[in-house]
Amino acid sequence: MKFLIQKLTYSLLLLWGIALLSSCSSGELFVEKSIRHPKESSKITKVVSIDPQFEVIDQREEAEERYLAAANREDQFNEILKENAKMNEVELQIIDSDNLSSSDLVYFNELMPLRKQIWNANWFQDVAVMGVTYGSNYVPNTGEFRRGLVMDAQFSNLSKAYNTPYFALNGVIASVVKRKGLGTILGKPKSKMLYYFILVNVESSEVLYREVRSLNKPASKLNLHSITYDSFRILRK
Amino acid sequence: MRPKNIFIFSILMILLLADVHAQVSGFRGKRWMLFTDLATPALERGYTIGIGLARSRRHTVTVSFADWGRKTTVASFVRPNVEVPLEYHFQTIEIGLNKFYNKAMPAPRGWYRMLSYRYGKGNFSYTDEISRRDPDTGNSLTGLNTYELTNINRHEINWGYGYFHLFPNRLFVDISLNTNFGWLINGALYEYTSTYDGFIGPNLTILERTVPLDADLSIGLSTKIRLGVLF
Questions:
Q1: Nearest residue on chain B to A10, judged by CA atoms?
Q2: Is B30 near chain A, with CB under 8 Å?
Q3: What is the complex's ipTM, to 2 decimals?
Q4: With left for phi above 0 and alpha for psi between -120 and 50, is residue B219 left, alpha or beta?
């Protein structure tokens, strides 16, 4: 009996240790859909993504935060977005401000103001104070918002120009943090990542879908493939 | 029902439960797993095969079948301070449920908690060389006593933690450490055979006290090192 109790104690101690380590790797996912989303999800076959953002913030430097050159990573992110959208039967057209063509001259006149509008709608029409959301008609625990976030109707003409009413903002903000204390033994820096995806319908001038994911993982190719595929999967269902 | 039959039945149940229209993405649409456990051939002579499915964004279900055995030694019943060879052989079926910690990353990826039930059927056997003096002639005779315990039903509950690491594309390693609580069900068949008559063998109670895996209740640690393919 004494032997059994001893064995059980060691087992529990070991499991607690692993549980503490594992708690570091949890992430969060927030998805909100307009009440119209279920009716429209099957129609979302083409999406225009306005200037996807990919930023890496290196916080290991003590002087000040340092932004890493992430231009090549941005191209990689664009390809990952396209590939995973295609796997979910969505044609993704990316308008990248770094690689504008003559056909994208509308960017500065139309797409940049639309991008600003989408951000404004998401920041100023949905104010959260102490965890309680005001301003929008988000229905708690349903993942839906009624009479959702709205924008100006001036962008409705874009649906003809791009042959789709669905425009999106996608982005990744990754940070690299120096480990402290016992974590320094592990050698590798601590990585965090934030992924967002906002989709609007310019014809109804409404935010149709928005999603934020936070992960305590690096923005590696494998992780980006995993979350972007899942993101388009949720969008289409 | 034999463990092999339960294994086939469980796979059929998973296939029937698999909802292709569910909002479960797995890793880029890959939700199925086919795996083997490297701990089985490393620690016991045998093999494990299994199949798994990402059932929801954070849960996977696995079913595995293992056939394993071992040769070891045990103290002789009749000869003091003598070890005699013992063989045991088991077939087990395990049904497990894994819950992944990461809410943002669809399963199967990263750390998880696991709970599983394992049912096994097996047998023990060992042979003891003995000697006696013939009462008629006075000569010394040697013989073999064989003890067999078959149809042993063992049940086990495992709980623990693991880490699922995916290599690019399809390959994965799944390592878990768990505590198990097991128990035996009575009804095992006991057979004792001897090479000559007139020798009385030990009873089942003595055998139960002697063989290493025969305790009615047991608590222990076990590990799984699964190597597999995601598809």
A1: B221
A2: no
A3: 0.79
A4: beta
A225 contacts in chain B (CB < 8 Å): 27-28
Is residue A52, in this structure, part of any structural domain at all? Answer: yes
Domain that holds residue B193: 3-230
CATH of the domain at B221: 2.40.160
C-alpha–C-alpha distance, residues B174 and A69, integer Å? 35
Q: What is the pLDDT along chain A (237 residues), one digit of tens a residue?
A: 556 666 666 666 666 566 555 555 578 888 888 888 888 888 999 999 998 999 888 777 654 555 555 667 888 999 999 999 999 999 999 988 777 777 667 777 788 889 998 888 877 776 555 555 555 555 555 656 655 677 888 888 889 989 999 999 999 998 887 777 666 666 677 788 999 999 999 998 888 888 889 888 888 899 999 999 999 999 987
* CB contact (8 A) between residue A29 and residue B101: no
Contact between chains at A19 and B29 (C-beta distance less than 8 A): no
With beta carbons less than 8 A apart as the criterion, state whether A61 and B3 touch: no
Range of the domain at A195: 28-236
Cα gap B104→A33, rounded to integer Å: 17
Task: Find, among B147, B156, B113, the residue nearest to B128 by Cα.
Answer: B147
CB contact A194 to B (< 8 Å): no
Report how many domains make up chain A: 1
Q: How much is the CA Rg of chain B, to the nearest whole Å? A: 23
